[in-house]
Design goal:
about 270 residues, alpha+beta, Immunoglobulin-like, five-stranded antiparallel beta sheet, single chain
């Protein structure tokens, strides 16, 4: 199956901005059953490409002339060949060992309420042979506690805040799932990207987020708790991190410009 991807981010400032600098994690990290047929990133200003400590490919660029708008776009086609593992698998060497992804950090920190939420699962977490069944049970537990609802949280919401509200979007579900895994001693990380939404109930035009969990003998396995499924070859990963703040597709800083508005439009369409 082939998919056409378009990812566009637009910033509009109330008044001219004198200087801005941005980082874009918009280059796909394809899995073993995926192939990137073409891909192009367009950004204004002066830029350079580099790889961060997690292995994410990053484009940085800056604008030094006054500007009141910025448009960042990525577009390309990827292919998923069915017949491999029933989950999105990666064969490249990892930049960091699994134990690193146990860090109790940021928006995916496991606070007391999350510890309580998973406390009865600790005996099962100690049994590596039961790992996949436990993770599926955790997905169902979160689904029973959380409602997918746009506007229930902001991008600054933590896993504990999302759990307290009982609602959120894919970012919140991913943060909560990652926090629960780490609370149980299971390495987990946040993944940002996009996915074909034809078979899924909860995918936003703003992009998508899921989690990756390290499972013995399998490596990193993707789980999409917002939709209650494992990530497959229809998911295109753009970045990983301990939380959203480290894996966001676009981040930046600026001087001036007054109030700012950001519009994001992401689409993944099957073309063959």
């Amino acid at each position: 199956m082939r998919f056409d991807v378009t990812h566009t981010t637009r910033f509009t400032f109330a008044e001219p901005c004198g200087y801005s600098i941005h980082q874009c994690r918009l280059t796909p990290r394809v899995g073993q059953t995926q192939r990137l047929l073409n891909w192009e990133i367009r950004t204004p200003g002066k830029g350079r490409d580099w790889t961060d400590g997690y292995g994410n490919m990053v484009r940085s660029f800056s604008l030094v002339e006054p500007h009141d708008t910025i448009e960042i776009s990525a577009r390309g086609v990827f292919e998923w060949v069915e017949g491999g593992p029933p989950y999105l698998a990666f064969g490249e060497a990892e930049a960091l060992p699994p134990v690193y992804w146990l860090r109790n950090h940021g928006l995916a920190a496991h606070e007391a309420t999350i510890e309580t939420f998973v406390d009865d699962l600790r005996p099962r977490a100690a049994d590596s042979a039961d790992r996949m069944d436990l993770l599926h049970a955790l997905v169902q537990r979160i689904a029973g506690r959380m409602e997918y609802r746009v506007g229930a949280t902001t991008v600054e919401a933590s896993a504990a805040e999302a759990l307290a509200r009982g609602a959120g979007v894919s970012q919140d579900f991913a943060h909560l799932f990652v926090a629960c895994c780490r609370a149980l001693g299971i390495p987990a990380r946040y993944a940002s990207g996009c996915v074909n939404k034809d078979k899924l109930a909860h995918v936003s035009r703003l992009g998508h987020a899921w989690a990756e969990v390290h499972v013995s003998d399998l490596g990193w396995v993707g789980f999409d708790p917002a939709n209650g499924v494992r990530a497959t070859g229809e998911y295109l990963k753009l970045g990983i991190g301990l939380d959203y703040a480290e894996a966001a597709p676009v981040t930046g800083r600026r001087f001036g410009g007054g109030e700012a508005a950001m519009e994001v439009d992401v689409s993944v369409d099957r073309i063959g």
